Amino acid sequence: MIQILDRRLADARHCAARLTLTVGSVVLLLFAAVAARWERVRASGDQGSESVDKAVLVAIGLAVAIGLAFAIRAVVQEFQGQIKK
Length: 85
Known about the structure:
Blueprint: H1 2-43, H2 50-84
């Protein structure tokens, strides 16, 4: 019974790590898209809402940092489980 629970817990950790990495990848892609859009707007000479664009970039950067922190934490926890066994 305990072996089954250990296996399910390991599977759940693995799925959580994959989900975290997937979300982190999506956030990075979103960040790249917004950065490209911002560069196009700047190149066109539009001076409209640069502060809003910068705020959006900062928010996306923070989301990426948080996502990477969770991804690293999930991977470390997964490897700690393997080391303990």
